[in-house]
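Hi R.,

Here's the chain you asked about this morning:
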Amino acid sequence: MTKVQMSERIEVPVVVNQEQVGFYVDNGYLAVPNLLNAAELDELKQDIIKVARGGYPNLTIEPVPRELSDEEVLSKILAIHQPHYVSPIMEKYTRHPKISGVLSQITGAHLAHWSGNVKCMQSMLFIKPPGYQGQSWHQDENYIPTRDRSLIGAWIAIDDAYVENGCMWVIPGSQRPGYLYPTRRHGNPDEFDTHDDMATGFDESPQIPVEVKAGSVVFFNGYLLHQSLLNRTQDSYRRVLVSHYLSSESLLPWVKTADEQPVARVDVRRVFPVAGVDPYAWKGYEKSPAAETQLYIRKATFDED
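And here is the predicted structure, written out as tokens:
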């Protein structure tokens, strides 16, 4: 019998206790303080500026004039998708050992025989300057389907995140049914980024804000209902690097197919393991050269520039 070729095992630390693991399974989210230190946060802040100024060759962000201040550059951007494609610093933090350690404990903790193997498939850098909108109620699994309900976000708070500057709000336990709520356009562009559809058909009253200090990481399940509101401050950014992960045993049918094959067999390989092993390593991995990468930039809907 031919042995399946797996990736080399990535050892990660044990970070959270069983009570925290149980909290995540029951509530669908877990906020872990102090996973990043001050030096790491400063490194991320400096790299955000480099990415936003076009400091890494790519097809989307051209170098900006030197006379523009960092503030002027950052103030025009709500979010940049997949910054780890071009920035080795951003990729470094998608693989952060402590974050990977938590992921290895909770990503598939709801599964009876889960192995602790985790892979990463996406990063999103939210800059969210003062006055910029949030995202209406949604479930990430609507956009990134998994076979085993293992999709999880790791939301690194680069700044303190609180109600006034647009922290995350969640409905604890809303992930338990494994149900994807119907969506519609939210129709409230003053509060929410109109890029997103809004989940509907549920009771919003159990919602709570997840206020955290910089250096904390909020982990949340792909079925968890969550939203964020407008940054109502005058001078506070709410910078976040959020990356998405899933069990390495789950395929990633994150594409639109032309009926050439059943979607359950599609497995996008623009991923990389961060904990344990990847049993599908024999399929190989895909990664575009940074200079050929098309980043996706989201600006505020009221920004006509």
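One quick note: The helical segments are 18-27, 38-52, 70-74, 88-94, 97-106.

Cheers,
M.
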